[in-house]
């Protein structure tokens, strides 16, 4: 199958990055680095040439000589053409080293002159190719880069294979790519060097397709369109790019329920085989292309009497994949189905859908086919589609429900009840549930251009606001208009004030205002007899009060859980079940919290509530992390992050939790990246609440990474944010113990004790037992820093036992680690005449507990401490450094900025590390100069060196 020349991208337009191929790219690069060879294989358009070029560019510098060839189908019948590409430019360099017979054979093959022929001097020519490679390799490593091996002329392929099998230890490597389906690459692997690594390129994921389209500039495409591109292209990057190009350039987009238009460039890849079908077989395949799950039985029911013979003919041509164990009729590639459908005349397509509207067994599919077979408005068809949408919603397929709702609106007459816009709004709400926020927003904006009924306008505005997710600041200007549209209707006002509660929390960072708005929304909803909104508002109020440490939280949770309940609210991520989970986990009831969130996750998956699934996966990961099941938490956190990125929902929150899980059980460097990503998301969204969570995760990752100074900077910022937000419950972020521990490590035990004392007041008031235990662990470190080793030992022993009984496995292990370090430190630096602390100075218990938790980064710290021995453990100093002492009179932010200046950081670097603007850094430094009586950064550096500024 020839790829048309106008379809091939010029090399310069292709990306240098290898999107979606990072792992296999790394594997191939490592193989080349070891001196081995690589064979890339996969179907047409899967990205083999892109990866080949990237690998060649990356590795070519290590080779003295790079030999290249790239064949095409039209050239495959010309003998020795690939050989000429490979050796034409080096013939003069090698010919003098070849025996006369080999030289003559090679020159004849490359130039076509002379008497030598492959038939007469075949062995001489084979040996000449092998000798030429050895001659080049004697001067330095050789890399042979060959693309599209399937089009190599037979003579060149045979010669290259002969040499490859005999190179042995000669420093010649081959980097090749070949188009294959299935296991066809075996033949090419046998013709490669024995150490060749075969790397198969598979289809891209939806997220990778989205990244590829974005890289090429096709950014206006919605997520629902990207989902269709991914499905139609089968994850093939070449096909996806062509579909994206066609859609980006098209003045009109396909309506929901319609297939993507297949551009001419792609049709050429499949239509040549479709043309070989008989007319009847083509019609049978058209029916199959229109069906959701086509089977032979469905084809028969749709009037295709000879379906078996006609599908067999298509399978023989490679258009259908054989299914020996099932009745399904499956196309070899989704593009074949799409091209077949796109080529059919509209009248023929409508006839196919009409046949399927009675032949299909599923009522949802029947309704969809009825809509596609009908042109114009038809109230009966619209009603059937609305019923099918309700059924899809109940089955947990909100994306399907949204598509059916839009089809229903299209067929609804303007004067019907419900009207077309009411059905569009239902479709938009289904799209929100399905995680397709951009589709929902587009529908709502369209309705707002013409809607005059207040209820419809407020409903549309609610969709616009909900589609903004955490980025509520982007729709801040909407609220005055929504309030005007709501008038004095308590039901409509309840909806608006519920969203204002979220605005107060996310945009203003004011928990008190958020709580007040939620309570007002609940009151309005009760007056308007809107139980769903009342329950959502009560659930929000309960969660806010829980995070605030408000004494009314338990009673509000009970009110939110009272009957009658709404099934949707009961399992929503901001509903009553979620509010109860937050209360349980902050009250140290981990088993009950796990059972609650597991049941909620199961239900939202059944209902297809993608946004809630993202959050509940994160909640479950958090529960497992606290319980010390760190490996399980890491798996769940990664799953939540993948789903968040695929759907574009909750990416910052999922990145935050994934950072905590990576720092506890995975890759600490990855944890640092994720925490900064989460902080960036929160900054962009203007979300102060999640900014504090992200920075807390960053501080924890920095602590695990062994950077206590960075931990202090991050967590001091968290302390400021939470004080501003009015968050008093230390169980919310659980960062106080980490900050105190890091402060002890940098020689600030006084500030550490202040952090502990402040948090302990609230923890005692709220009965947060696990928080109190962690604070006691941190206080033991403060006491040890002050030389009170016996008291520290007693406290740590008690803390470890308490955390174990509460079920906080990771915190228990950290207490055991601190205990082992304290005993080791006492053994290395005995005080009071050499008095030793009771108990073994061993890390075995800490290692056992961390191993049980699968807390690999912590386990590596234990192993390193045990291997280093007592001499490596330095006693903590109770006295702060001179430089920090000089900054005592400064505010917290001023101290952080001045400390970074002491380290030599620029204003831009300080801004990036503290998540503030450069202007804020400059203004803070001005205040520092004034308070310290100095004039410049140089004077701060002098303070760092312990000298007074001049």
Topology:
Blueprint: H1 22-33, E1 38-42, H2 48-59, E2 65-70, H3 81-87, H4 91-95, H5 100-111, H6 122-139, E3 142-147, H7 154-164, E4 172-179, H8 185-190, E5 197-200, H9 206-215, H10 223-233, H11 237-249, H12 264-274, H13 279-290, H14 296-301, H15 307-316, E6 320-321, E7 330-331, H16 334-343, H17 346-359, H18 363-372, H19 379-395, H20 398-410, H21 420-433, H22 437-448, H23 454-467, H24 478-486, H25 490-506, H26 511-527, H27 531-548, H28 553-561, H29 567-571, H30 576-586, H31 590-607, H32 610-626, H33 630-647, H34 651-665, H35 668-685, H36 688-704, H37 708-725, H38 736-745, H39 749-766, H40 769-785, H41 789-806, H42 809-828, H43 844-853, H44 856-868, H45 882-886, H46 892-902, H47 907-914, H48 918-932, H49 937-944
Parallel strand pairs: 1-4, 1-5, 2-3, 3-4
Antiparallel strand pairs: 6-7
Q: Which range does the strand content fall in? A: under 5%
Q: Main sheet, how many strands, which sense, barrel?
A: 5 strands, parallel
As a percent range, the share of helical residues equals 55-70%
Q: Average pLDDT across residues?
A: 82
Number of strands: 7
Radius of gyration: 34 Å
Strand line-up across the major sheet: 2-3-4-1-5
Structural class, from helix and strand content? Answer: mainly alpha
Number of DSSP helical runs: 49
